[in-house]
Design brief:
This protein has 92 residues and is α+β, with helices and mostly antiparallel strands. It has one domain. A two-stranded antiparallel ribbon has the order 1-2. It is elongated and about 65 Å long.
């Protein structure tokens, strides 16, 4: 009896983990990186210039090399840039 409960619990946990990763993948697909809109200390990850590699380390508001994840299709309306646009701006 106890072994069947243990097996059932293990199967349920494995199925739940699969669903969680699937939801996370769908959520990421619905977002895009938007450069030039992050406030100081509110960037989502490493910047283009390579001066840091972690979230929350931007030093100034709206730096072209800093980014945040936003809903897909909303970056332009927030006056943001794509990665290619941000790289071009940094080269100038």
């Amino acid at each position: 009896m106890k072994s069947s409960i243990l097996v059932s619990s293990a199967v349920a946990a494995a199925l739940a983990m699969g669903l969680v990763s699937q939801v996370a993948a769908q959520d990421k697909a619905a977002k895009e990186k938007c450069f030039g809109i992050a406030k100081a200390g509110e960037n989502d990850c490493a910047n283009l210039s390579g001066s840091h590699s972690c979230a929350g380390q931007s030093k100034s508001d709206n730096a072209a090399d800093e980014w945040k994840f936003v809903a897909k299709g909303t970056c332009k309306s927030m006056s943001g840039m794509s990665a290619d646009e941000a790289k071009a701006k940094l080269k100038k």
